[in-house]
Design brief:
The complex is a heterodimer of chains A (114) and B (113).
Chain A: E1 3-5, E2 10-14, E3 19-21, E4 24-26, E5 32-39, E6 46-52, E7 60-61, E8 64-69, E9 74-79, E10 88-96, E11 103-104, E12 108-113
Parallel strand pairs in A: 2-12
Antiparallel strand pairs in A: 1-4, 3-9, 5-6, 5-10, 7-8, 8-9, 10-11, 10-12
Chain B: E1 5-7, E2 10-13, E3 19-24, E4 31-38, E5 42-50, E6 53-57, E7 64-68, E8 74-78, E9 87-94, E10 103-104, E11 108-112
Parallel strand pairs in B: 2-11
Antiparallel strand pairs in B: 1-3, 3-8, 4-5, 4-9, 5-6, 7-8, 9-10, 9-11
Classes of the chains: A mainly beta (114), B mainly beta (113).
Chain lengths: 114, 113
């Protein structure tokens, strides 16, 4: 069974600084997708960024980028120029190609200090 | 385009009762998935519906069931509620292909007393 591990239950960063959230996963599949979702106190789960395993290039969305290391089964999220609105729970998620369900990590609570 | 909507947003029930939660997907999305979120177990997959058919089911007891209508709207039902069913229930929709990203609704907070 696939598993996703987020080893940092909580992280904090100063506003405007850079922070990296860690995620590792375990799978025997070769084709899959990885996601970072953000869940603010409003509870709405929002997609931050998505990575296809067959793509070697790391995905980037404005201030958010990933470091995808397929051999190491690592998928970290870097947030640059942190803003107060980035404060939320961040979940790493995995989905095998052709599968319907997402497998989530336990989440990392990110605090932004002004 | 309107996002995924879920009703009701909050629900309080007592043990033994049953409850029905509703999810309206993004227009054009035919797949609806349900997840349960609790502090202890995190986010767990309940089931997924596509074209009114359940295609995948997570490891939950038979008290948890769902259905999907021809307009892609979905409902999930929990019968004989237990205290442990207290959770945030999230619905997610996507278009047709498994490669499509799932977009989540705001969730229904269920409290069982």
């Amino acid at each position: 069974a696939q598993t996703v591990t987020q080893s940092q239950p909580e992280m904090s960063v100063q506003e405007a600084e850079t922070v990296t959230l860690s995620c590792t996963y375990d799978t025997s599949e070769s084709d899959y997708y990885l996601f970072w979702y953000k869940q603010p106190p409003s509870r709405q789960m929002i997609l931050v960024i998505r990575q296809e395993a067959y793509k070697q290039q790391n995905a980037t969305e404005n201030r958010f980028s990933v470091n995808f290391q397929k051999a190491a089964k690592s998928f970290s999220l870097k947030i640059s120029d942190s803003q107060l609105g980035d404060a939320a729970m961040y979940f790493c998620a995995y989905k095998a190609a052709g599968a319907q369900k997402l497998v989530f990590g336990q989440g990392t609570r990110l605090t932004i200090n002004p | 385009k309107a996002g995924v909507t879920q009703t009701p947003r909050y629900l309080i029930k007592t043990r033994g009762q049953q409850v029905t939660l509703s999810c309206s997907p993004i227009s054009g999305h035919r797949s609806v998935s349900w997840y349960q979120q609790t502090p202890g177990q995190g986010l767990q997959f309940l089931f997924e519906y596509f074209s009114e058919t359940q295609r995948n089911k997570g490891n939950f007891p038979g008290r948890f069931s769902g259905r999907q209508f021809s307009n892609s709207r979905s409902e999930m039902n929990v019968s004989t509620l237990e205290l442990g069913d207290s959770a945030l229930y999230l619905c997610a929709s996507r278009r047709d292909r498994p490669t499509d990203t799932q977009y989540f609704g705001p969730g229904t907070r269920l409290t069982v007393l």
